Amino acid sequence: MNKGGAKWSKVDFHSFWPHTLLFLNISISFLLIKNMFYGEYQHNIDNKGRLILPSRVREVCKEAGIERFFLTQGLDKCIFMFSESEWKAHEQKFKSMPFTKQQNRSFNRMFFSRAVDIVPDKQGRFIIPQFLKDYAVIEREVIIIGVSNRMEIWDRKKWQEFYSNSSGSFEEIAENILNI
Description:
alpha+beta; Chemotaxis protein chec; six-stranded antiparallel β-sheet; two-stranded antiparallel sheet; 7 helices
């Protein structure tokens, strides 16, 4: 006899399992789309001024259905490259910042006024506007790095300089920002 008043019933795990798989599949796909850019790739700007996306990045973008990107002035003298969906997420976030604050206005002006949208050709090539190359001091040799939700395009020498200056303090930075 059940003294607590609770009723027990058998749970059919098999009817629950397909829904779990569906949820996991959606969640995993979302994570792959949101966190897809990683690695370091060295490329050159060709004689026509075009840069090619690394083949691995092109594969991932094709799988995710990403065709359009946004380039803008980044931080530390690099160019930020966002997928269209990530760009729209940042756009919404920055739109919600009060424009009555001077720092918000300045940031938005710099971020959005230097932005261009691009659609790479079938070989994954695109042109970086000269004003962005000037900002990032890019001539011919570039490094494209994946930084989770965006890519960054660096002049090869600038990236090596940044990496050399920052890599020694990686553990210290991790200690200060991560609660592991």
